[in-house]
Design brief:
The chain is an alpha+beta fold. The protein folds into 2 domains: 3-225, Rossmann fold, CATH 3.40.50.300; 241-343, Nucleic acid-binding proteins (OB fold (Dihydrolipoamide Acetyltransferase, E2P), Beta Barrel). It has helices at residues 44-52, 94-98, 100-104, 109-122, 138-150, 168-185, 196-202, 220-225, 230-235, and strands at residues 3-11, 19-28, 33-37, 59-64, 67-68, 79-82, 156-160, 188-193, 205-210, 213-218, 240-246, 252-254, 257-259, 268-274, 279-282, 288-297, 302-308, 311-317, 329-334, 339-343. The strands form 4 sheets. The chain has a 6-stranded mixed β-sheet, sandwiched between helices. Helix 4 crosses helix 5. The longest helix is centred in the middle third of the chain and has 18 residues, at 168-185.
């Protein structure tokens, strides 16, 4: 079941109130996972709530599987949403939480029980029937929220920052589980997050939003390697932006470094987005001279803050040893991966 936005706007308040969503158009194809990505306040959660029917657009049309649902409420859309807070009923067991929507929908008790148990097994909760939410870990609570959404057999599944309350290890495993479930069940999913790595890991397509507008949309690889604007270049992969100059021969000059961008840019002033992992360090020339200001040992990598003629530079260096010390002089070069160039 596809999702389509046609010229959707949203404002809170009267006609003179500012728009929080500015006439956006996009589609989520059937059986795919599209992530809506952006910083806080960009409008991404408002977009998700409009898909769910929890908010009404000020203008435009929303279609699900070709049917105009703009004026329909949540119960009429066959859409399920997994909230950031999980929104579990604390006094209900896991089983009762999972089958709650079926009970409200007056599904026969034996059918509701069968579907609840099947869905709990699907998400790894078999045997947890009598547990209360307070007796579960964060990852297990997330699975309950996911099962409660899936048991309704929705046409569309929505996620609003579903992993933000989990630690790093659980985030990684849960995003893999969500992606595997989505692909196995061929669900149509819209997924909201502010975490670039999460978006890159789970998505068929990413929509980057900036101040209520779509800044760019495309595959994870397209957005990471070929950003269309300075905003997208800086946002994807936590890149740092530097002033550079594009030459007539197609190369770009960044201080003492010359590089060839992945896509052609016209001669003139440019912005070069460099991700922390793109820098290469050497104890001797040639390259960009820099001095270590801070270093942190992370086991498999070092995180370094360096001072150079280009200003402060943050580097993730994949060699944990030897640990570089404050005051140490190094020279920097750039690898081809993790560098993007956009006109200024």
């Amino acid at each position: 079941m596809s999702i389509e936005f046609r010229a959707i706007t949203k404002r809170y308040g009267g006609s003179k109130a500012p728009l929080v969503v500015h006439g956006i158009d996009f589609a989520v194809p059937t059986g795919t996972l599209t992530t809506i990505l952006g910083p806080s306040g960009c409008g991404k959660t408002t977009v998700l709530r409009m898909i769910a029917g929890l908010e009404s657009p000020t203008s435009g049309r929303i279609l699900i599987d070709g049917r105009d649902v703009t004026a329909l409420g949540p119960a009429e859309r066959n859409v399920s949403m997994v909230f950031q807070s999980y929104a579990l009923f604390p006094h209900m067991s896991v089983l009762d939480n999972v089958r709650y929507g079926l009970t409200v929908s007056e599904v026969p008790a034996d059918e509701a029980m069968r579907r609840a148990h099947a869905t709990m097994e699907l998400v790894g909760l078999a045997g947890y029937d009598a547990r209360l939410p307070s007796e579960l870990s964060g990852g297990q609570q997330q699975r309950v929220a996911l099962a409660r959404a899936l048991v309704l057999e929705p046409r569309v599944l929505l996620f609003d920052e579903p992993l933000s309350n989990l630690d790093a290890r659980l985030r990684r495993s849960m995003r893999e589980e969500i992606r595997a479930l989505q692909q196995r069940l061929k669900l149509t999913v819209a997924y909201v997050t502010h975490d670039q790595n999460e978006a890159l890991a789970v998505s068929d397509e990413i929509i980057v939003m900036d101040a209520g507008r779509i800044a760019q949309r495309g595959t994870p690889q397209t957005l990471y390697e070929r950003p269309a604007s300075e905003f997208v270049a800086g946002f994807m992969g936590e890149a740092m932006l530097f002033d550079g100059q594009a030459e007539g021969d197609g190369t770009v000059v960044l201080g003492p470094i010359r590089l060839t961008p992945r896509q052609p840019v016209p001669p003139g002033a440019v912005r070069v987005a460099v991700r922390p992992e793109a820098w290469r360090l050497s104890p001797q020339e040639p390259g960009l001279e820099a001095v270590v200001q801070k270093s942190a040992y992370l086991g498999s990598t070092q995180e370094l803050t360096l001072q150079s003629a280009l200003g402060s530079i943050f580097v993730v260096w994949p060699e944990p040893e030897p640990l570089l010390r404050a005051g140490q002089r190094v020279w920097l070069a750039l690898s081809g991966h993790g560098v993007s160039v956009v006109p200024r």
